[in-house]
Automatic annotation (TrEMBL):
Annotated GO biological process: ATP synthesis coupled electron transport
The entry's keywords: Copper, Electron transport, Magnesium, Membrane, Metal-binding, Mitochondrion, Mitochondrion inner membrane, Respiratory chain, Translocase, Transmembrane, Transmembrane helix, Transport
Biological role: Component of the cytochrome c oxidase, the last enzyme in the mitochondrial electron transport chain which drives oxidative phosphorylation. The respiratory chain contains 3 multisubunit complexes succinate dehydrogenase (complex II, CII), ubiquinol-cytochrome c oxidoreductase (cytochrome b-c1 complex, complex III, CIII) and cytochrome c oxidase (complex IV, CIV), that cooperate to transfer electrons derived from NADH and succinate to molecular oxygen, creating an electrochemical gradient over the inner membrane that drives transmembrane transport and the ATP synthase.
Superkingdom: Eukaryota
PROSITE patterns: COX2_CUA (PS50857), COX2_TM (PS50999)
Record PANTHER family: CYTOCHROME C OXIDASE SUBUNIT 2, CYTOCHROME C OXIDASE, SUBUNIT II
Subcellular location: Mitochondrion inner membrane
Zinc as UniProt keyword: no
Reactions mediated catalytically: 4 Fe(II)-[cytochrome c] + O2 + 8 H(+)(in) = 4 Fe(III)-[cytochrome c] + 2 H2O + 4 H(+)(out)
Protein name: Cytochrome c oxidase subunit 2
Stretches assigned to the Cytochrome oxidase subunit II copper A binding domain: 79-173
Lineage per the UniProt record: Eukaryota, Metazoa, Chordata, Craniata, Vertebrata
Amino acid sequence: SPIMEELITFHDHAFMAVSLISFLVLYALLSTLTTKLTNTNITDAQEMETIWTILPAIILILIALPSLRILYLTDEVNDPSFTIKSIGHQWYWTYEYTDYGGLIFNSYMLPPLFLNPGDLRLLEVDNRVVLPIEAPVRMMITSQDVLHSWTIPTLGLKTDAVPGRLNQTVFTA
């Protein structure tokens, strides 16, 4: 999904900044340990203090701005094609396609005896949710009994299902 592409790009951006900082600190530590200090009278270094105060603030801003942009994109509500309500139960999910005649079905995990070779244990279900491609979908997510997490990692989605609260997410597959 476009959101997941943005998340991967942000991860690469943040990882590059952290890597450069780590290599700089490692170089400074190694050079301090391996060289003989010739100038031990460093009492007036306002320029250096200014640099190591301002530089981390600039780096944090360069990391925070793309993060805020992605946070805004994940919460943006477009005009969805249809709405699916997902209700988490103790051991299964209930899905309601309310826009299309009130289609309601339960999705139970498959027991290990019913798994085919290549199926993922605790992830395979008997009824899967069918989602359209290139159409915005609104998911209304709640729980009936305990906290759950409704997730599709490849789309960059993770929304908590909390009893008594209706969370929503909009995505395009």
